[in-house]
Amino acid sequence: MTRERQDRPSRTDPPTAASVSTVSDTTAAPTAPTAPDATAVVLAGGESTRFGHGHKALATLDGEPLIRRVVGTLRAVTGRPPIVAVRTVDQRERLAAALPTTWDVRFVRDDPSLSGPLAGVAAAADAATTPWLFVAGCDMPLLEPHAVAALFERAASRDGDRGDGEHARSVSSNDDRGRLKPPAVVPVSGHGREPLHALYRRATVRENVSELAPDDGLGALLDRLDGVEHVGFDALPESVDRSVTNVNTRTELARVAAGCEVRR
User: Fold this and answer.
1) Under 8 Å CB-to-CB from 247, ≥6 apart: which residues?
2) What's phi and psi for 125, nearest 5 deg?
3) Alpha-carbon gap, residue 210 to 185, rounded angstroms
4) How many C-beta neighbours within 10 Å does residue 80 have?
């Protein structure tokens, strides 16, 4: 199946609502009154064993490193510098060199008591100050602003305020069904949950990671939470299908470059 190539917003200019809205889609980008207060978290601490030599975040698509594509897109959507989670100092130095210094990207080291994506999310939850975290992988070069924005709007519709912590778990006055404010908003495709293209309440992450085993993943975290908002792809912009695409091998990256669909 072939994916249609789409224009992307500029990621070298300061993020603005206008820069996000340049992407053609049927869903509007979030605006200040509806977007939740979120920090994007880009997970880049993996060893890239399936990719071969070198860190896959530094591989290029259309001449641009994957890490720059991902960070730039999420910086534009959230309007603030993302957090990049890495495992080693060497990873931090190499990835920082691929990003403009004007982007003011923050780096954190993976939580040493955990492994995989959860280690990076836990470290970012300690470093961030916003109520929400949007989590994505560094190997997702087709992230689409409107697909991300649709999840933000979903979260904002469940929140009667920008609160965090205990208050965030109270019943929302804006939800006429009396549902609890969700601890996470996660897309669900025909392949299952998409935990690396999802929103997590920062307080919820911090409250639950200590109960998880060192080799647990984001799925184990989600399984612990009550009231997770699972959103089917049919309720999201069509671009979500390409937005969740990740590349684990050089062959997959070549297929993306050729405009072909890559499924995990």
Assistant:
1) 51, 56, 59, 66, 139, 140, 141, 253, 256, 262
2) -65, -30
3) 21
4) 17
- In whole angstroms, give the CA distance from residue 217 to residue 212: 9
H helix or E strand, kind and range, residue 251: helix 250-257
Query: Does the pTM exceed 0.85?
Result: no
- Greatest Cα pair distance in the chain: 53
Checking DSSP bridges between strand 197-201 and strand 132-137, what pairing results, if any? Answer: antiparallel
Would you state the structure tokens that stand for residue 222, as one six-digit string?
């989600």
Kindly report, residue by residue over 167-194, the tens digit of the pLDDT: 344 333 334 344 568 999 999 999 899 9
